[in-house]
Amino acid sequence: MSPPFHIERAVPAQVDALCAIERAAVQLFRGHPAWPAYEAASLPPDQLEAAIARGLVWVALGEAGAPVGFVWLDDEAGGDAVAVAEIDVLPRHGRRGIGAALLEHACAWARAAGYRRVDLGTLADVPWNAPFYARHGFRPMDKHAPAYAALLAHDRAHGFPDRLRVFMSRPLEPAAPGDWTAWPAPAKLNLFLRITGRRPDGYHELQTVFRLLDWGDELRLRVRGDGEIRRVGGAPGVPADDDLAVRAARLLREHAGVGAGADIGIDKRIPMGGGLGGGSSDAATALVALNHLWGCGLDEDALAGLGRRLGADVPVFVRGRSAWAEGVGERLTPLALPRRWYVVLDPRAHVPTAGLFQAPELTRNAAPATIPSFVSGEAAENAFEPVVRARYPEVAAALDWLGGFGRARLSGSGGCVFLETASRGQARRVARQCPAAFAAHVAPGVDTSPLRRALARHRGAAGNASTPAQR
Question: Within a domain: residue 83?
Fold first, then answer.
């Protein structure tokens, strides 16, 4: 008999419900010596929403479809460990296995994502805290070990009493051959885009700045022994043979001469046809991840070369660094950009790139820009923006609305538009006012792709597990 709940990734619209679950669950600690600290430490909605956007929160939905529990993972410490930031179940739904299912679901994802352990801080003397986690493979650890510095700082910042709290850790085995693995495929923004000419082969000479985001799709990959490349699910309306991730896997298999195959599943979050590089990023993640899983041994240059055969944007995702780009997008110079948060608005308009390149009104002979002219703000336009604005009223409306908060820009050839802000709070305040006609996403820009971090974890999981001190 199936349980009266199911688990899925949380969505931003559930933030308020999850905060309410936490407030209800914390009431169980009334009368405990740690109660004053627990009462004061309310869940930060903006941080929870950011974690949801990155796919780090899972929710248990009851029979009526309403949230009854959730688990939130925190990867801020970096490296090969991830922490349980919060796990709560509505008290009236307790003792039904929901907490255990959420915990196991989160640990299974962490293992698939290449993490080697899951950490947490909890109360030592509460039956549904430390004893519960012990039954699920968590061991008490030395909270003063360097590996737990972030957890200890969090506890002290919230006034949790040292004598009552214990830190615990659960080691995770590396994914075995034939297991599913999880890999990020981040979105990108074009902070400016200029067309400086047209080559004899018909391709356009571009200059742009690719800004990688810590938000995007997730690829699930499982090695097959029969050489078949099969897509499991996939984007609606995209045949498997046209899917860039499938094409990337087949190209790598043929180039490297391997006999293995793969099952490919994609959790799509990046809007299709939005100028955010979703298909290109999926392709790059397939190349990088399968090069590791199949043991092909190709270096970054070789993978970027294969990526270029799939699309002009694929190499920047393979190399995994925000960059100044020239040529058709293949000549890349890594850039260190200021820490910024972005409001990305999806006007739900699919904008085909090919048609825009043929537009007679497109400016194709702009004077070349330089990196200093971009840094100074002189080079900030997008050559496609006036064309898209004139042809797609939904995009024009999104630019106009977002422009009420600052300088709104088109990404790539559209149709998504974005606003750069200095903080997560500022971006979230804008996104929460988004009209129903659009969908808003909030994400930080990053200089180094989450795909590079994931590759380092998976490589480490193959042989270099960390072993913090056990108490």
Answer: yes
Rounded CA separation 52/139 (Å): 27
Q: Is the dihedral of CA 31, 36, 37, 42 positive or negative?
A: positive
Residue with tokens 């915990």: 103
What is the three-state SS of 278-337? HHHHHHHHHHHHHHHHCCCCCCHHHHHHHHHHHCCCHHHHHHCECEEEEECCCEEEECCC
Low-confidence ranges of the chain (pLDDT < 70): 1-2, 462-471
Q: Would you please indicate which residues are annotated as catalytic (active-site) residues?
A: 188, 313
The percent of residues in the chain predicted with pLDDT above 70, rounded, is 97
The domain of 10 spans: 5-171
Burial 81-98 (b: 16+ CB within 10 A, else e): bbbbbbbbbbeebeebeb
* Residue 464 included in any domain: no
Residue 278 annotated in ligand binding: yes
330 exposure class (CB count in 10 Å sphere: 0-12, 13-18, 19+): middle
**What pLDDT, on the 0 to 100 scale, is given for residue 41?**
86
Does residue 281 have a known ligand-binding role? yes
Please tell me what DSSP assigns to residue 382: B
User: What per-residue string of b and e applies to 47-73 under the rule 16 or more CB within 10 Å gives b?
Assistant: ebbbbbbbbbbbbbbbeeeebbbbbbb
Phi-psi region of 58 (alpha: psi -120 to 50; beta: other; left: phi over 0): beta
| Residue 1 marked in a binding site | no
CATH number for the domain that contains residue 191: 3.30.230.10
Q: Please tell me the predicted confidence (pLDDT) of residue 467.
A: 38
